[in-house]
Hints:
Elements: H1 22-35, H2 50-60
Amino acid sequence: MSVRPRATGFFASVEGVDGCGKTGVVQYLREELTKSGLDLVTTREPGGTAQGEALRGAVACGYR
């Protein structure tokens, strides 16, 4: 029988309508959790690449 290591990470998702403050919440959480010594990876979808950012711009077309 093999023993699997216990998972030590977690996945969190911040969702909401456009303009409700998701980006600010993620920035605050990232700062606070980093101060606590946690390693973080933050992303936004679609995003993180030049193509993803271009897609975000195309989808937003005039909503910002």
